[in-house]
Amino acid sequence: MSVERPEKDRYYLSIARVVATRSTCLKVLMGAIIVKEDQIIATGYVGAPRKTRSSLDHGFCLRQKLNIPSGTQYELCRSVHAEQNAIINAARAGVSLLGGDMFIHGEYRKDNRVLNAFPCFICKKMIINAGLRRVVCSVAEGDTPWRVFQVDDWIQDWQTHDIIDDRDRYRG
């Protein structure tokens, strides 16, 4: 009897996909989980801060209403990014993230097309400072449905180049 088990990256990315279903953004569903020593230690999805009203509650996206281009002026978004929420949730539980891996899944709410769930600059900076080791992101197309980033590569790249030269960033 042959039993097929998904490899670990696929397994954890599929859990991040389920977490994304809780998203309150009107445009995208984004979910993140943090795994350390093969144990899920935190989850997060894109959503309004606790006990506040989301775009779903309001019935409109504030950034769209203000004609703000995608990928800019995140401070005017009602939501906290999935990566940020996962890091915050770990902090609330008093869990260290040092050496952990983050898995991020993203898709468009309208048609569930998978997107390149690469972190924005703000999230990358938080991931670096949290001491995470790897980030595994869903990708829209390619040989594999995910891409693996080594956080040390981001650090090394930013030591020699400017942050604005970063090639692999969220542009949804």
Overall radius of gyration: 16 Å
Structural class: alpha+beta
Largest sheet: 5 strands, mixed
Total of helices: 6
Succession of helices and strands: HEEHHHEHEEH
Mean pLDDT: 92
The dominant shape is globular
- Arrangement of strands in the largest sheet: 2-1-3-4-5
Note poorly predicted spans: none
What is the number of E strands?
Answer: 5
Note the gap between the termini: 44 Å
Tell me the β content: 15-25%
Proportion of helical residues: 25-40%
Summarize this structure briefly.
The chain has six helices and five strands; from the N terminus they run αββαααβαββα.
Description:
With 172 residues, this protein is α+β, with helices and mostly antiparallel strands. It contains six helices and five strands, in the order αββαααβαββα. The protein has helices at residues 8-20, 55-58, 62-65, 82-93, 121-130, 151-160, and strands at residues 28-36, 39-45, 101-108, 134-138, 146-150. A five-stranded mixed beta sheet has the order 2-1-3-4-5. Strand 4 (134-138) and strand 5 (146-150) form a beta hairpin. The longest helix has 13 residues, at 8-20. The model has no long low-confidence stretch (mean pLDDT 92).
